[in-house]
Structure formats: C-alpha cells, structure tokens
Design a protein that fits this description.
The protein has one domain: HIT family, subunit A. Helices cover 21% and strands 22% of the residues. The chain is built from two helices and five strands, in the order αβββαββ. Bound molecules: guanosine-5'-monophosphate and zinc ion. Guanosine-5'-monophosphate (5GP) binds next to β2.
Length: 113
C-alpha cells in the first residue's frame, strides 16, 4: 500500500532498526520504546488490523506470535513479556497496518491501561 508507514518501513523506504526478517514477517525496534525490549512485528503484506482479519489470515496471525516467541527467547526475556495487538482507535492503534508489539525486560502491571 503506497501511503502506509509500515509498508514503507518493510520496503526500506523509511529507515528502521531491523530485528528480524523473512518472506512473511518484518520486525523492527519501536521508535518510542515503552520497555527495554519493544519490538514491532508486521506482516509484509498490508493488513489493516485484527478487526479486518478473515479465516485465511489465521496462519500469519499465529506465525507472528511464533516469531515474537523466538525473539523473546533470543533476548532472554522469557521470564515475562507481552505480545499485544492494539485494535481500533479506542485501543490506541495509531498505525493501520497490523503490528504485534513485543514488550518486555521490565515488570508489567495488570490490567494494562
Ligand atoms: P499502535 O499505537 O498503533 O499500536 O502502535 C504504533 C507504534 O508504532 C507505536 O508504539 C509507535 O511508537 C511506533 N511508531 C510510529 N511511527 C514509527 C516509526 O516511524 N518507526 C518506528 N520504528 N516505530 C514507529
Ligand atoms: Zn501497510
């Protein structure tokens, strides 16, 4: 999609600190980290958000979680991290290309705000 910030990051048109890439997923450091580890994982194919998901998206949604778990293992944060999808403006979603937040490396509170 031409006018999407995260599509531009995936395509390398906007710089980012890449953490992981394969044929389906691109992961990069969040520019405004909320914890020592704060990584965004995005499907390379433009996809607006979980509220627009269809059954064919099941594989990529699960795969994003598995890649997050792999990064969590590599970062040594398996004693506590969160994977978070903000869905829709009231949740705080501000970029409408689906992205899984991987947040960890500090104590978390519950419930999230
Ligand atoms: P949302 O609020 O939509 O769930 O999350 C969007 C996230 O993208 C925010 O955590 C924000 O800091 C991050 N973000 C916004 N613009 C950029 C950018 O240009 N580069 C990077 N690396 N992260 C960004
Ligand atoms: Zn996009």
């Amino acid at each position: 999609m031409t006018d999407c910030l995260f599509c531009k990051i995936v395509e390398g048109k906007i710089p980012s600190k890449k953490v992981y890439e394969d044929d389906k997923v691109f992961a990069f450091e969040d520019v405004n980290p909320q914890a020592p580890t704060h990584i965004l994982l995005v499907p390379k194919r433009h996809f607006e958000g979980l509220n627009k998901a269809v059954p064919e998206d099941a594989e990529i949604l699960g795969y994003l979680q598995l890649v997050a778990a792999k990064i969590g293992r590599e970062r040594g944060i398996e004693d506590g991290y969160r994977t978070v999808l903000n869905v829709g403006p009231r949740s705080g979603q501000s970029v409408f290309h689906l992205h899984l937040h991987l947040i960890g490396g500090r104590d978390m509170t519950w419930p999230p705000g």
